[in-house]
Each structure stands twice: as C-alpha cells, then as structure tokens.
C-alpha cells in the first residue's frame, strides 16, 4: 500500500516509464561487473575497464574481432628487419578534449607514461626507448623481439591521453582523451552510472552507432539480471545460470572462452615435491580428472572441455590434443605405480572461498590416486600471493587470444602463478622456444602449435576446461566477445 | 550540560582511537601483502615489489601506522590502493547515498512504528496488535536480501514503478532521487518498523498501568493528553531502539546496496575488503565510528529532553 501511494505520487511528478522501460532511442545502457579502476590508462585494468576507457580515449592500435591488430591513432606500422624497431605513422588532425593536439611528441609522452605505469608497465617490459622521428612518426626501440606487443597495445594498453593532463597528473580524477565520446559528469554518478555523449565529429565516428552510452557497474549478478528484466539495461555481463531465462526473453546471448580452470603445477622439476618432477605423475593426474564432468557439474556447462591453455578456436589450439589425457583412472593408477608411487604421496594445497566449488572434486580424485591433500585456508587476496609457493594449486587464469601472448604469458615468463617456468629443464621445449623467438608469421604459428603439443605431452598443467564469459543484449544490439578482454570495448558493441 | 557534552565527546574520541588503531593492525595482519590482488593475474614479482614500495608497505608497520594516523587526524585518509583517488573524496561521494537510504528508512520506521505502537498500545488485544505479533515473527525470519528481491520483482520488474538498480543524486533530480531510494528504504525499514512498534507497545502497556496515569485520568484530563503523557514516558526505550537501529541499518545497508546496486559506503566496504584496499577500509571505519558516536550523543540529548532524570544522571 505504502509503495503504491509513493509510486502514484512520484508518477505524477515524473514519467516513470521514461527511465525504467526499454525505449527506441539512440542510447545504450550497459551493465558491467566492475567500476572503472582508474581514468589514467597507466593505472587502469585491461579486464573490465575497456568499455569506460574506449568511450573517452583513442588507442594507438585496436583489435579486430579476430584479435588482429588494426590501425587507430597509428595509421600504419612496420618492423625493422631484426624486429627490434617498430616504426609507427600517426593520424593527423586529432585533438584531445582540452584542446591539445595529438602528434608524435604526445604519443612518445604517452608511451613513456604507460611504460612507467604500475599496471601497464608489463606490456612495455621489452621496450628500451620511444623516440619521435618526425611530427607524425615515432619509433619504438625494443630490447628484444616482442611478438605480443601489438596485441597487448590493441587489447587496451595504448590509450592516448592529453600530454598536458599526464604532466599535471590529472588523469586519476577525470579522463582527458580524444575518444568518440565525452564524459558527461553532470549526468554521471561515480560508482553507479557513467554517461558518455557522442562527439559531433570524430575520425572513427561510424564505428560507434550510439548517441549516448551509459555504463552501470553492477557487481551482483542478480542485480544485473534484474536491471535487464526491468529494462534499465540493454547489454549486461551475464551469469551462465540465467541463460535459460534470457532465451525465454528473446535476448541475444554471446559467449566466448575467457579463462582456463584446472591445476597449475609450479614445481615441474620436483625440487620441492619430488613426485611432480616425474612426468608420469603429472600425466597420471591429467588422466584422473574428467574435465568434461567438472565443467558440467561445477562450471554449469559453460565452456569447452579441453586440456590446453590456448583458447578454443585460436590458431594455436589443436582439437586433436584433447584426447591426449582421456579420463582413465586405471591408467592413472598404473602411471603412478610405474613412477614409484603406487600408494600416492602427500601434498599441501592452498584454498580460499572462491575455489571451494572445485575442492571436493580435487580432494576425491587425488585421493583415489592415494595423493593426500592438506588444505591451507586463506583469504582470496592471500591466495594470489601465496598459491604459487605450493607445488600445485587450483587455478582460474585468464586466456589470451594471441598465440605469441599465450606462449609468453602462460608458459615462458615469470608470473605470480608461474614463478619457476623452468623451461630450460626441458630440452625439446627450450629448442622450440628458441625457434619461435627467431621466426614470425606462419612459420612461427606452426612452431607454436608444436609447442602446444609438447607442453600437453609434458603435462605442463592439468587443464580441465576453458570457461566462458557471457553477455546478454536485447534484440537489435550485438556484443562480440574478445578473449583477453573481460568486457569488450565499445567497438565490439553494435546494432544488429 | 557542558560537562555532560565534554564527557561524551571525550569517550567518543577514545572509542575512535581504539577502534581505528585495532582496525589498522588487524587489517594488516589479515590481508598481509595486497599487491597481488591489486595488480591482477599478469603482475610480475618486480611489479609487485615496485607497487609495495610505492604504497609504503616496505616500511615498518609502526611507521606506517604513525604516517596514517598523523594524516587521518587532519582529515586526510590517503589514497585508495586500487584507483589512487583520495579516499576522503570517495567517502564524501558515498556517504550521501547510504545516509539517504538509512535516514529515509529510519524516518519510515519511526513514523510507521510510532503509529502502529500507539494504536496497538491503546488496543492491546485488537486485530492490529495480533497482526503486529505475526508481522514481527515473519519479518524477523525473512532475510533482508529476500525482502529486497521481492520488492524488486514486484515493483521494479513487474509494475516498473521504481528502478531495479542505481542511485540518482538529489542535486540531479528530486523525484529521481526519491524513486531510487524508495524500495531500498522500505526493504531496510520493514524489520525496524515492527521492532519499534513492539517496544513502544510494551512500554505503553507498562506505563499505562502506573499510578500517575490513573491520577491524570482522575483529574479529568482528556484521553488525548493522557496518551501524550504515556507516550512521553514510554518512548525512551523505543528511542534507544531507534538509535541502535540506525547504527544497525548502516551495517544492514551493505545487503540492500548490493541488491539495488547503490554506490554507498556498504558496497565500497565490500569491494575494498575483497581486494584488500586497507586505506579505504580504515577511512570507512573512521566514518562509521563517527556516526555511532554522533548518534549516541544525539540520543543522549534527546533522552535528556524527554526524561529529565537522565540529565541529572
């Protein structure tokens, strides 16, 4: 009764339907999982910051739907013969919202700012120096060949900001870019709603069909789904459990693999836990887990059962490798016995609330091999800090839709989840990596496919499946998911 | 009165010091090294070390505490470890959201609770009194998020009278603001309404049987004036409950802010806890303690006004 009275009174003051229902205007209302981390591209996250930053900034390099680098503010580029210098030609006539011009000096200042950034710095780890060649050309000098650089730049690591704003350290408070939209502070409420208004003129105006873009950070999946149901949103980051309901509503449902789920081995040489140094033990563990069953029971069936860290559908992905470790508990036990561990061994593993869904399966399956797990409970923040100090742990790790980036990020480089890549202890792997480093193009891709087969054969990890990210949109709007971006940038949200 | 005020302020300051100091050391003990959570999957050990140095985490804990404390007493809570924005600015943006919902819920609870409490106190065996008994059992048994979800499903999704999520600041639109806080306030107030009504009803019945009420009636006072006297004597317990409820609603606001996606201090507390953003958590602790101290101080003043005996104590 009280609610009805209030509603009637408020309805008399305003048109309720205008803000809650779907309407055929030229605006789009997007619900994403997280609030913008920072308006400063050097402090922003690639993951969920894409929609926000792509509204107000132009990148030097963008990605197409197949994750190939395409021109943006850099109109073309060329590597030197030794691939240690990348020369980029820049777009002219572009201005930032504070009136500053985009030119080679601005690009150099931006790239140096990004290289020094706490979150963006990793992308530019191989960059030695950036220099202005002429007002419309820059040269990026590399310490060593870096085949993933353009991909990472396109993924969200080359947003260009006003040089004056960088110098004055103003970007933490507000964005100053040259992007297709301007940030409408008057209609925005930080933490709740960010409104962007399309510029009358922009060099890439055709890529952005919506007159206004409103982005709502909604961490709770139920709240996000309710907002879609009430018509407040027309695009949202989705929970797999809501897919049947979304189908009944006639919404578009777009999914693509985003993370791999399984056991990460951090001690493949057996320094701390001798059994893990024996490939037969790692293979036994791979045979013991039925990835498809875990995907169905814990992962709600939303993903692809595979044992690879290259995304399903990627050029380096090889479907034939998925049979390499078919579920076979008898074979797993035989391998354990052959390795000299017929009764298993003891291992300590970390555990935190977000991984508890998989804990019973791991406990039971490893138990069947005689592997006795002692769980060390910790907070989610401590898990990321401490997990890699254990010989193996349950992992959910992001995938990259670029073969070279996958090799670097998942196999060879030192990361929190892979503190001892130990590739040098595996001669065939080392040789393949050397050849990959010396080649490019199709030749390199063929070698990466061989590397994928080799790491699978060596049971480098125990991948159960690759999990999807899913997006709902109303009829008339489509989202193209990009593996590597937790939420795609605005160029991947289109009418149609 | 001045002595009373000074004593309250001093105890409030001591409470603030003890709670925030304990929070500082407990948070550092519980979260340890937050850099992995802050930098994400792709962070290298070198990046984490650089961030640790940038955040000052490589210094002794006591040094860190003194640095934080000396700035906090000047109102400077530092910058967030996640987005590097000043914490005072973030809290200033979010306090109005939580206060809007909590104050509206408190007013709603006070007004409706008062009306129901008096009505059931006057007719203790009437239908309303029995309904109140039933409602108090049901509403206490129902979890806050469930009540919130039912309100969203009926009034936002089905009827589309109110928005399902989001907050509109008062300065942007008065009606937009009211529409955005209506369902969260009702969800938050329902439990408080029955609690206040129950307290008031019980107090009313107790006072109604006292000798001075019989004397008032014997002196020929109208029943309206007698009711006012009874209400004044029965209200301290309900007022105390109301003040406790206000503080409790600040905590309960976390659930409501999540369901309705309101950018208040509850949702900020949740996100800061998840990633281990200790400076934000400490800033929020200070603000919450200040709220508790101020509310208790105001409660004492009101109780003193309602009941002169309290002033003498």
TrEMBL record, chain A:
Transmembrane regions listed in the UniProt entry: none
Signal sequence extent: 1-18
Domain Solute-binding protein family: 69-404
Keyword Signal tagged: yes
Keywords recorded for this protein, A-Z: Signal
PANTHER family: ABC TRANSPORTER SUBSTRATE-BINDING PROTEIN (PTHR30290:SF83), PERIPLASMIC BINDING COMPONENT OF ABC TRANSPORTER (PTHR30290)
Protein name from the UniProt record: ABC transporter substrate-binding protein
TrEMBL record, chain B:
Topological type in the membrane: Multi-pass membrane protein
Gene3D superfamilies tied to this protein: MetI-like
InterPro entries: BPD_transp_1_N, MetI-like, MetI-like_sf
Entry's localization field: Cell membrane
Pfam families: BPD_transp_1, BPD_transp_1_N
TM region positions: 97-122, 134-157, 177-197, 237-260, 280-306
ABC transmembrane type-1 domain: residues covered: 95-299
Keyword Transmembrane: yes
Alphabetized UniProt keyword annotations: Cell membrane, Membrane, Transmembrane, Transmembrane helix, Transport
Annotated family: Belongs to the binding-protein-dependent transport system permease family.
Name of the protein this chain belongs to: ABC transporter permease
Organism: Streptomyces solicavernae
């Amino acid at each position: 009764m009280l609610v009805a009275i209030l509603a009637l009174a408020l309805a008399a003051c305003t048109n309720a339907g205008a803000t809650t229902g779907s309407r055929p205007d030229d605006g789009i209302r997007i619900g994403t999982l997280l609030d913008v981390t920072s308006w400063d591209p050097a402090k922003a996250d690639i993951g969920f910051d894409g929609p926000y930053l792509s509204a107000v900034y132009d990148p030097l390099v963008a990605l197409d739907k197949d994750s190939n680098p395409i021109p943006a503010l850099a109109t073309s580029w060329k590597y030197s013969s030794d691939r240690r210098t990348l020369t980029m030609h820049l777009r002219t006539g572009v201005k930032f919202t504070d009136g500053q011009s985009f030119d080679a000096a601005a690009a150099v200042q931006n790239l140096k700012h990004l290289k020094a950034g706490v979150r963006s710095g990793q992308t530019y780890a191989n960059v030695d120096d950036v220099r202005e060649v002429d007002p419309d050309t820059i040269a990026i000098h590399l310490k060593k060949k870096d085949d993933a650089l353009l991909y990472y730049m396109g993924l969200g690591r080359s947003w260009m900001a006003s040089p004056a704003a960088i110098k004055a350290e103003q970007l933490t408070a507000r964005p100053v870019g040259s992007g297709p939209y301007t940030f409408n502070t008057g209609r925005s409420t930080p933490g709740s709603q960010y409104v962007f208004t399309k510029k009358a003129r922009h060099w890439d105006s055709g890529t952005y069909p919506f007159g206004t873009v409103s982005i709502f950070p909604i961490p709770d999946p139920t709240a996000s789904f309710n907002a879609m149901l009430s018509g407040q949103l027309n695009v949202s980051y989705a929970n797999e459990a809501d897919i049947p309901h979304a189908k009944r509503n006639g919404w578009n449902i777009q999914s693509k693999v985003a993370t791999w789920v399984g056991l990460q081995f951090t001690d493949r040489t057996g320094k701390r836990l001798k059994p893990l140094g024996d490939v037969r033990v790692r293979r036994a563990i791979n045979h013991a887990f039925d990835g498809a069953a875990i995907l169905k029971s814990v992962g709600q069936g939303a993903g692809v059962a595979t044992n690879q860290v290259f995304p399903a559908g990627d050029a380096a992905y090889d479907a034939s490798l998925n049979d390499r470790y078919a579920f076979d508990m008898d074979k797993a036990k035989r391998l354990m016995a052959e390795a000299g561990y017929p009764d298993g061994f003891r291992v300590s593993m970390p555990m935190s609330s977000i991984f508890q869904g998989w804990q019973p399966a791991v406990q039971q399956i490893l138990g069947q091999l005689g592997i006795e797990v002692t769980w060390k409970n910790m907070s989610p923040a401590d898990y990321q800090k401490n997990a890699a100090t254990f010989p193996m742990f349950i992992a959910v790790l992001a995938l990259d839709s670029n073969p070279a980036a996958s090799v670097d990020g998942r196999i060879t480089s030192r990361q929190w989840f892979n503190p001892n890549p130990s590739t040098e202890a595996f001669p065939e792997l080392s040789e393949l990596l050397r050849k990959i480093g010396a080649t490019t193009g199709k030749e390199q891709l063929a070698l990466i496919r061989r590397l994928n087969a080799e790491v699978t054969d060596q049971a480098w990890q125990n991948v159960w499946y690759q999990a999807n990210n899913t997006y709902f949109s109303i009829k008339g709007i489509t989202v193209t998911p990009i593996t590597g971006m937790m939420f795609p940038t605005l160029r991947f949200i289109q009418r149609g | 009165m001045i002595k009373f005020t000074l004593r309250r302020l001093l105890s409030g300051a001591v409470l603030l010091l003890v709670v925030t100091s304990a929070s500082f050391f407990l948070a550092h003990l519980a979260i340890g090294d937050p850099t992995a959570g802050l930098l994400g999957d792709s962070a290298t050990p070198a990046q984490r070390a650089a961030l640790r140095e940038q955040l000052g985490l490589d210094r002794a804990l006591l040094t860190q505490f003194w640095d934080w404390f000396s700035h906090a007493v000047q109102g400077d809570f530092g910058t967030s470890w996640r987005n590097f924005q000043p914490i005072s600015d973030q809290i200033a943006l979010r306090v109005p959201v939580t206060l809007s919902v909590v104050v509206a819920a408190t007013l709603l609870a006070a007004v409706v609770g008062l009306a129901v409490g008096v009505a059931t106190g006057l007719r203790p065996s009437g239908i309303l009194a029995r309904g109140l008994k039933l409602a108090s059992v049901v509403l206490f048994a129902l979890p806050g998020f469930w009540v919130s979800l039912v309100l969203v499903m009926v009034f936002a999704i089905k009827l589309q009278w109110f928005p399902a999520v989001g907050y509109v600041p008062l300065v942007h639109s008065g009606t937009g603001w009211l529409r955005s806080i209506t369902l969260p306030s009702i969800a938050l107030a329902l439990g408080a309404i029955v609690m206040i009504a129950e307290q008031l009803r019980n107090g009313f019945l107790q006072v109604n049987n006292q000798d001075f009420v019989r004397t008032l009636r014997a002196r020929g006072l109208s029943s309206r004036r007698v009711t006012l006297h009874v209400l004044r004597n029965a209200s301290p317990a309900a007022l105390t409950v109301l003040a406790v409820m206000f503080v409790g609603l600040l905590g309960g606001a976390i659930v409501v802010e999540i369901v309705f996606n309101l950018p208040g201090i509850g949702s900020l507390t949740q996100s800061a806890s998840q990633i281990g953003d200790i400076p934000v958590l400490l800033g929020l602790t200070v603000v919450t303690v200040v709220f508790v101290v101020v509310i208790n101080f105001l409660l004492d003043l009101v109780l003193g006004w309602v009941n002169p005996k309290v002033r003498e104590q």
